[in-house]
Specification:
By secondary structure, the chain is α+β, with helices and mostly antiparallel strands. It contains twelve helices and 31 strands.
């Protein structure tokens, strides 16, 4: 009896520990003082880091990211890019990232990037460390016990690399002096899976939640923007001061910009003496900052950046209604970087593209607030963001069109019959990209680590397009209205908590009342494809029967639309066995019929109608076009009697 009770206690303890693995997170509090030399493109820094070990584990070492060490000849990023460049696609295009190519190996000493650790102490005691290119390994003199806090004090220096990827200086395309992302030694994430000392090879990031207090001293003619709230706006000016107030700048050749950023997992800033600053205050919402490189007598450039500021004001109510409340007091769109790259409360944009601006802003929902491990779940970051971007972009164009129609009616603008682009499926491009990937034979499972894809081509489509389809196709499975509620549930349940795919699936199952682990298994973990078709039509007794066939290896529920000579329609819905549930009626204005579930082990299934065969003029599988069927040619049968 004693043995049984002891065994029960041990099993119960293990179960409790497993259940609590996602219930804790490490915590950081950074204080940094940075002194920038714009002549040498170098800066020195002092970092005070409070690190709280909320895990149940004793930590004998810690790891930091030193991202800028990637911008040195023969680094992992350099070697990987050049190797991928040897892969040539059918269109004669090399597979490397066109921004990186082989540029790193040609950097001169003054153009390279580096982050050097000059000293490191924990609780006042000197720590030994080893640099593994972009990862700093620290062997601790004393372990960090569970539920305790330590303080690391670090002195470091860095050289800003020539702009190649994400961060850097003097980008000739934008003219921006400094895009300061991944610029400081950043402690790696430790979670229930252990440490994540992911080297900087190409892809995405993972960080620890916390608070930042950053002071940046730089030549007084430079204008800054980025993450966080400026604390000394009345001493800085440049458009940050209270409207109509007086700015009193301190004397000296430099200004010290003081930012704080609560509840974020990274900190970015950018600086240029030619930045122009646009400000928009959203009622009961955040302040929007737009900083861009001003070009004299270029009104087109001014108008394009102003449009981004105004568009942000226009779309935020739609975003918050569909994806959740924006939790911060400001957001900054800043010209810089090499394309579009997201950071907390801010983004770097190489140009004033509205689509890119919407995409990067939506990253503040799907990454900066939800913060999945991007290296492992890039599709939950890029794919969910792309899905949201498509809807935000369509909303913006539709609202803009309505405004134009209103002005036309008032005689103040040109009349347009329709905005044809806004009427298209906003996710059509994602489906086309995915089908191209399948045809190429280069597809890899979405469980592949983002740095370990064999081609950039496969990574990009898997992360962006197949991830976007995941959500649109989920709406086909559970119903669009249910999918929309799932997204809000997911955001409200998991914000600031680093969710993974299993966490999302459980939210979706609870809201839909269905089992959805099969969807994750097939769509995420494998490269199996969907392929349904119409096999045959025949009459039997007083019914017309339609035999469906499944040729693909991924099972799905199936919608079948039957159109009759008199113009009437019937929608026949066949759930899939593994769902153990069925979606509600999505087309209430027509006759709907729901069937018993189609077992995935059976290659055919029959649906029926009481109408005669010769009354049917069309049969169509998936009339809404949301199922990613790789061979849609046999999905539609037109009967020309």
């Amino acid at each position: 009896m004693k043995y049984f009770l002891l065994l029960l206690f041990v099993v119960g303890s293990l179960s409790l520990t497993h259940a609590q693995t996602s219930g804790w997170q490490q915590r950081v509090r950074y204080k940094m003082d940075i002194n920038m030399d714009v002549n040498t493109n170098r800066f020195t820094g002092k970092q005070h880091l409070e690190y709280t070990n909320n895990s149940p584990d004793t930590l004998h070492r810690v790891f930091y990211h030193l991202y800028w060490n990637a911008f040195q000849p023969n680094s992992m990023m350099d070697a990987r890019s050049r190797e991928l460049g040897k892969v040539v696609h059918s269109n004669n295009r090399q597979d490397w990232d066109g921004r990186v190519r082989d540029r790193i190996q040609n950097l001169k000493p003054e153009e390279m990037g580096y982050q050097k650790i000059l000293s490191l102490k924990m609780n006042g005691m000197v720590q030994s460390f080893k640099v593994h290119e972009t990862i700093l390994e620290v062997t601790l003199t004393k372990p960090i016990l569970p539920k305790t806090k330590v303080v690391f004090n670090m002195e470091f220096e860095a050289q800003v690399p020539l702009q190649i990827r994400r961060s850097g200086r003097d980008n000739p395309t934008t003219g921006v002096r400094y895009s300061m992302s991944q610029w400081y030694p950043k402690i790696c994430e430790y979670d229930f899976e252990g440490w994540h000392p992911t080297p900087y090879v190409a892809r995405e990031f993972h960080g620890v939640w916390g608070d930042f207090d950053v002071k940046i001293s730089i030549d007084r003619n430079y204008i800054l923007g980025g993450t966080g709230y400026l604390q000394n706006a009345q001493q800085i000016g440049y458009g940050y001061e209270a409207p109509g107030s007086r700015v009193t700048q301190p004397t000296g050749s430099k200004l010290t910009w003081h930012f704080i950023a609560p509840e974020v997992h990274d900190f970015m800033w950018a600086a240029d003496p030619e930045f122009r600053h646009i400000v928009r205050k959203i009622p009961q919402g955040p302040t929007i900052h737009v900083l861009y490189n001003y070009k004299e007598n270029d009104t087109k450039n001014d108008d394009a950046w102003t449009k981004i500021a105004d568009a942000a004001v226009k779309v935020l109510p739609f975003i918050e209604k569909n994806f959740g409340k924006y939790p911060y007091k400001q957001y900054s769109f800043i010209q810089g970087g090499d394309g579009g790259m997201e950071y907390p409360m801010s983004t770097l944009l190489s140009g004033p593209s509205l689509g890119t601006a919407f995409h990067e802003w939506m990253h503040n929902w799907y990454q900066m607030v939800l913060a999945t491990n991007e290296s492992l779940y890039a599709w939950m970051d890029e794919g969910f963001t792309s899905y949201a971007e498509s809807l935000v972009d369509r909303y913006y164009r539709d609202v803009s069109f309505e405004e134009k129609v209103t002005r036309s009616a008032e005689g103040t603008g040109p009349r347009r019959i329709a905005d044809e682009k806004s009427m298209q499926n906003p996710h059509a491009g994602a489906y086309q990209n995915y089908f191209a990937l399948v045809r190429s034979g280069k597809e890899e499972p979405m469980t592949t680590h983002s740095d370990h894809y064999e081609t950039n081509f496969a990574y990009s489509i898997a992360a962006y397009s197949k991830g976007e389809i995941f959500l649109e196709q989920l709406g086909y499975i559970v119903g669009a209205a249910t999918r929309d509620r799932i997204l809000l549930d997911y955001y409200n349940t998991w914000k600031f908590k680093h969710p993974n795919v299993n966490d999302f699936i459980r939210v979706a199952e609870k809201r839909s009342g269905m089992k959805l682990d099969w969807y994750r298994e097939y769509w995420v973990n494998t490269t199996k494809t969907i392929d349904y078709g119409i096999d045959s039509l025949f009459e039997r007794g007083n019914e017309t029967r339609i035999r469906l066939k499944r040729s693909g290896k991924m099972p799905m529920p199936v919608d079948v639309m039957i159109t009759f000579r008199d113009g009437s329609k019937e929608l026949h819905y066949v759930p899939m066995y593994l769902m153990f549930g069925a979606k509600g009626v999505e087309e209430p204005k027509m006759n709907n019929k729901t069937y018993e579930a189609w077992k995935w082990t059976h290659p055919t299934y029959e649906v029926s109608t009481s109408r005669r065969l010769q009354d049917i003029v069309k049969v169509e599988i998936d009339p809404s076009g949301r199922m990613a069927d790789v061979n849609p040619k046999d999905n539609t049968l037109d009967l020309n009697w």
